[in-house]
């Protein structure tokens, strides 16, 4: 049976997953609490990484090195980068990149990591299709989109920046960890998937919307993950 690592940046994003686990052993490593156990027979490690790409990458590496996970799923909320993707809708990653990588001074395009073979990290196709079909089953009235996740160490709450992100990277949603987890997964040759529920529109209203809609968005990812874990 596959051992699944699940990373959320914030307590709100993973607490309900931790509560549903059985036979839990908790270990604190690098100031993160790793909850190892199972959910209805599926082996699982759930962890709150903290916010941002560095935390997320460290967390992923620990899951690989010390927990020997077979795959990693990143869950949580995100800002929408498309008009048709509304608050509470779900975005499942086809791939992920880091929008704040800028080595143009050395002749690289924006988002390209110097001296790496890849800077756009492809999500696992089987996991993606499975998540899509589970979504239709458990959240039938929601918009479910598959597309690019663009991550950076920035909360996007500015319409100009949002437009720039859309124009430059053609993303579906933006958040602060997914592509770092994707890069760590790529380097360790394990599959990954990012599943995000939209909490805001990444524009001038983002901060207000985020506070209001975060809980609804997280309810949706929890519902989806509960059903998905059983099918992996
Ligand atoms: N997570 C949720 N909304 C976000 C936004 N607008 N920017 C970055 N990360 C987010």
Q: Would you list the SSEs in sequence order as H and E?
A: EHEEEHEEEHEHEHEH
Compute the average pLDDT.
96
- The amount of beta strand, in percent, is 25-35%
Number of domains: 1
State the fourth-level CATH superfamily: Nucleoside phosphorylase domain
What's the CATH class, please? Alpha Beta
The 3D shape can be described as globular
The main pleated sheet reads as: 5 strands, mixed, barrel
In the CATH classification, which architecture applies? 3-Layer(aba) Sandwich
How many beta strands in the DSSP annotation?
10
Question: Roughly how much helix do the residues carry, as a percent range?
Answer: 25-40%
CATH topology: Rossmann fold
Chemical compounds bound to the protein: adenine
User: Low-confidence runs (pLDDT<50, min 5 residues)?
Assistant: none
Strand order of the largest sheet: 5-9-8-6-10
GO biological process, one term: L-methionine salvage from methylthioadenosine
Pathway: Amino-acid biosynthesis; L-methionine biosynthesis via salvage pathway; S-methyl-5-thio-alpha-D-ribose 1-phosphate from S-methyl-5'-thioadenosine (hydrolase route): step 1/2
Enzyme class: hydrolase
Protein name: adenosylhomocysteine nucleosidase
